[in-house]
Specification:
mainly alpha, 2 domains, elongated
Length: 179
């Protein structure tokens, strides 16, 4: 009789574990499906920033190659938001562990912001305006290359995908508020 009771107890335990595990799995799966349906699957902040890099580089290339000053308001807006977002949300998370890379990124941002300020204060008809825009393009290309080749891999290593996904959502929310 004791043996049958033991087997019965083990079966109940197995059933309980199976139901609990399957409920957790089902809950997890449903959450993912819900997020997909809502279009809010978490995107890594690094992926968002890489997309922004690509977009700004394309805008800068078009502006400089075609000597098109009309693109400047969009370039300036996107660059300023991007720079502030990195400085506000991402760089503070890596400053202590990746000090040199983070401090260099801050310095590069300062150079870009200085050039943007100069462009803002310079008449668009001035002969130095477009060469200064080319300097912004060169600074951004240099910064993006270093950030994507060195800083982002180190950041992924330090923070991990969960924290970067969380930062991606936080960044998206922050941008919605800023824009």
């Amino acid at each position: 009789m004791f043996f049958i009771f033991r087997i019965y107890f083990i079966l109940i335990l197995i059933r309980y574990l199976f139901i609990t595990l399957s409920e957790n799995f089902i809950t997890y799966y449903l959450e993912i499906m819900y997020k997909k349906c809502e279009g809010i699957i978490m995107t890594s902040m690094i992926e968002i920033l890489k997309n922004e890099h690509k977009n700004v580089k394309n805008l800068l290339n078009e502006a400089v190659e075609n000597k098109d000053t009309s693109k400047y308001p969009q370039i300036q807006k996107e660059l300023r938001i991007h720079l502030e977002g990195e400085e506000t949300l991402l760089y503070p998370k890596t400053r202590d562990q990746a000090t040199d890379l983070t401090l260099e990124a801050y310095e590069e941002h300062d150079l870009v912001k200085k050039e943007l300020n100069d462009l803002d204060n310079l008449n668009i008809e001035n002969e130095y305006w477009m060469p200064k825009m080319k300097v912004v393009k060169d600074l951004v290309e240099h910064h993006v290359k270093e950030e994507e080749d060195e800083y982002f891999p180190k950041t992924e290593e330090l923070l991990g995908s969960d924290q970067l996904d969380h930062l991606g959502q936080k960044y998206a929310d922050w941008k919605d508020d800023v824009m």
